Structure to design on (175 residues):
């Protein structure tokens, strides 16, 4: 009669945050085991150093601080448009101490693809260059990468972000 909330179990995709100084890193991965309040996760840990640098330079506002202090699976993409440092994550989180949320496998695939395809670096290159030939080459390189993406959700997400950043117009999907 009532739908049950899905249980946290092996094979479920999760998103979490991990304290790193004043801000949090982003962790996402697959649950490898559950033992009471402890869960094993195999995935990635992302340090959004580019957004942290922008914040320190005074080039961002309170929304960026909120994203760095409290990243979620919905807002983290705004931290992933700048340079990031990544490493594999194979660890244990405590559900009583750490904020962990289950995410759909499609959302996990987009996040993983975003990092594996080096999209933060490509987008950051476009945003950090002044108008001119060099920026046009960076845009073309990003466009070429988008053209080779096979995951439709990742491609759609990238196009949406690029359009909102005014890297590409909504009229020309081919750049």
């Amino acid at each position: 009669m009532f739908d049950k909330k899905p249980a946290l179990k092996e094979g479920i995709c999760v998103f979490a945050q991990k304290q790193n100084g004043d801000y949090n890193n982003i962790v996402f991965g697959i649950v490898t085991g559950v033992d009471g309040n402890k869960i094993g996760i195999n995935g990635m840990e992302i340090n959004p150093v580019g957004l942290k640098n922008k914040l320190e330079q005074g080039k961002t506002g309170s929304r960026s601080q909120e994203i760095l202090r409290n990243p979620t699976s919905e807002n983290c993409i705004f931290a992933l448009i700048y340079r990031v440092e990544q490493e594999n994550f194979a660890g244990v989180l405590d559900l009583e101490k750490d904020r962990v949320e289950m995410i759909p496998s499609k959302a996990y695939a987009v996040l993983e693809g975003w990092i594996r395809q080096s999209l933060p670096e490509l987008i950051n290159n476009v945003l950090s260059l002044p108008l001119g030939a060099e920026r046009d080459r960076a845009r073309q390189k990003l466009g070429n990468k988008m053209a080779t993406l096979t995951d439709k959700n990742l491609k759609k997400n990238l196009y949406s972000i690029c359009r909102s950043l005014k890297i590409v117009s909504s009229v020309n999907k081919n750049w």
In short: Residues 13-103 form one domain. Residues 69 and 175 are 34 Å apart (CA to CA). The chain has six helices and five strands. The first strand starts at residue 13 and ends at 20.
